[in-house]
Amino acid sequence: MHWLKEVFVDIIVTLFIISAIFIETSWMQWVIIGYTTLMLLVKIIVLVGDSSMQLIRKTATDAPDWVPHLLYALNTGFLLYGQWWATAIAWGLIWILSFIAQRKLNAMRGLA
Fold first, then answer.
1. What is the pTM of this model?
2. Could you give the CA distance from residue 46 to residue 109 in angstroms, rounded to a whole number?
3. Cβ distance 28 to 16 under 8 Å?
4. How far apart are CA 82 and CA 80, in angstroms?
5. What are the tens digits of pLDDT across the range 3-27?
6. What would the DSSP string read from start to end of 23-57?
């Protein structure tokens, strides 16, 4: 269960997104938009940057592969439910890019 510490921020972000959908305050919306933009940029840089292999290795965790998929699915689903269309699309892209990064990492480890 050491991996729970590694995904703690992701869990907090998911809970924050779910809260923001139901509470609907503008400051929460801006926090989510900012964090989403940052996450999307990081995922893109990791996959297309010259040193992407080192960055992918650094992002490896002991968490089961299904954990980020579950969290990203919840984020995308709740954002769709709340009709935050652009943010939901961004989280869908984050989810896809994370899947691609995980495949690369597994290939580097010889697991894929």
1. 0.86
2. 17
3. yes
4. 5
5. 888 899 999 999 999 999 999 899 9
6. H--HHHHHHHHHHHHHHHHHHHHHHHSTTHHHHHH
